[in-house]
Amino acid sequence: MKIGIDAGGTLLKIVYFENEKRRFEKRPSSEIDLLIDDLNTYHSADEIYLTGGKAEYMNEKLKQIHGTSVEFDATYRGLIKLMQEQNLSIKRFVYLNVGTGTSFHQADWEGQTRVGGSGVGGGTLMGLSKLLTDLDSYDEIVKLAAAGNRDEIDLKVHHIYAGRQTPIPGDLTASNFGNVLTGNIQDMNNADKIQAVIGLVAETVTAVGISLADGFETEDIVFIGSTLLNNDVMIEIVRRYADLKGVNAHIIENGEYSGALGALL
Ligand code: ADP
Ligand code: MG
Question: pTM score, two decimals?
């Protein structure tokens, strides 16, 4: 069996590959030593390939490994594979890996260039949600967000223009959380707050993606990373923002496994 592991800041993404069959698994990065024990105990005869920020650490503790890859190269290889499988044949695109933080890349079928990063990502979603609502379960957070409404929290362009004609779409966010002081704070419940946090993360990374796409002369932006997982609110905000700006947002199924998959390719 071949095993590809992307050991990230928050999650360990694992791909098991045997007899042309693939199985995906995720574990919290806090359980990295448990995974290492499992691999040393049950998978000493298997081929293990590593990537991600914690790959070096795993490399030191594993009895044997077959290779390590630079995270950005592995992710690109895995992403191209998933795009081919999902019949997404865009030649030139920007992709965003929305993990704990976010990294931005411009790519074509020849390769990728990492063009930047932002500390705003899934870790921001988790951290701000905890501070604002005391919730810390990802599944609970994304589920609750769907029941919220961020209209009272965010300041929209049409709020500022107050009924007058707007030079850009009035529904765009003028300031994330910018309406809190003028809004009715008592009416802002946990679902609203979390939805606003997701809005902040989604709009920040998408705005950067849109600018990079413009500079790279493409209209296609590809999103990967566990922050999109079951995150309907995030996906809807990304799609709506992209629509307003005339770009195509592509959300890759199993995209969070790009690195793990690429590591064993
Ligand atoms: P990294 O490679 O930095 O570990 P990921 O692409 O795995 O990043 O994304 C991590 C983010 O995914 C978290 O910050 C969180 O927002 C989200 N997430 C999705 N599922 C989970 C989960 N089960 N537990 C914790 N965070 C999760
Ligand atoms: Mg990652």
Answer: 0.97
